[in-house]
Write a structure and sequence with these properties.
This protein is α/β, with parallel strands linked by helices. The chain has a domain of about 150 residues: P-loop containing nucleotide triphosphate hydrolases (Rossmann fold, 3-Layer(aba) Sandwich), CATH 3.40.50. The protein is built from eleven helices and ten strands.
Length: about 230
């Protein structure tokens, strides 16, 4: 579904991504792992069109999307849940969700998608009239994921969805990602929580200093000596 080839990205004049290449197949959960500053968020922001690559290509199926505006990339079927959630705090849960369905193809099936989202997130159904800013951090993260799903994405990108959440809420977030996997939603996950991420990933890529240094099945990387030593403290 998604193919990245030799992606190079600069912030001002400083290069932060170096020849990054990877793929995401339909119905997979693929994770980009690495420490803070490794280049993971830069990668998904570039895919979403928020940053422009210096060179390389990004293809959704067989269509190149690097260089086109972000709103067109959303229209092509890629949705990003950004780090920090960025919900609309003074709007209700329902209003946030409806805004997620603003692309034309999502508007046509908005009611059906809303039913599906409420089935995935029953708490949001119970609180649909509540102001989003009055909910807990975990509930706001659920809302951010649900809002992205309202656009009926072909690919859902999650940037650090567990960041800053209590351990019990982190488990809930990964349970939701597991549910999405069972629903055959294609997910590109950016995470620092290596153990939980690898447990639910079909495949994963390890990033360090703007480069991919290791790739493999999630289960294989969980047992990889370097990963266990560098990221799991074993």
């Amino acid at each position: 579904m998604l193919s990245i080839e030799k992606l190079n990205v600069l912030y001002d004049k400083v290069q932060v991504l170096w020849d990054v290449s990877f793929r995401v197949n339909e119905s997979e959960v693929v994770t980009l792992l690495g420490s803070n500053g490794a280049g993971k968020s830069t990668t998904v922001k570039t895919i979403q069109g928020l940053l422009k690559p210096r060179s390389g290509s990004i293809k959704l199926f067989d269509t190149r999307i690097d260089g086109i505006p972000t709103y067109k990339i959303v229209g092509e079927g890629i949705a990003l849940v950004p780090e920090g959630r960025e919900i609309f705090p003074k709007m209700s849960v329902l209003e946030n969700l409806v805004l997620g369905a603003y692309v034309p193809r999502a508007r046509e099936t908005q009611n059906d998608t809303l039913e599906w989202v409420f089935a995935l997130f029953p708490t949001l159904a119970e609180r649909k009239k509540q102001l989003a800013g009055t909910m807990s951090g975990g509930e706001q993260q659920m809302l951010a994921i649900a809002r992205a799903l309202m656009s009926k994405p072909k690919l859902l990108m999650l940037d650090e969805p567990s960041l800053g959440l209590a351990p019990v809420v982190v488990l809930q977030v990964f349970e939701i990602i597991q549910k999405l996997k069972e629903e055959r939603v294609t997910v590109l996950l950016v995470e620092q929580n290596v153990h939980h991420a690898l447990e639910i990933s079909d495949r994963a890529y390890i990033m360090e200093k703007g480069q991919i240094i290791l790739e493999g099945k999630g289960s294989d990387l969980l047992n990889n000596h370097y990963v266990r030593q560098a990221y799991l403290g074993m």
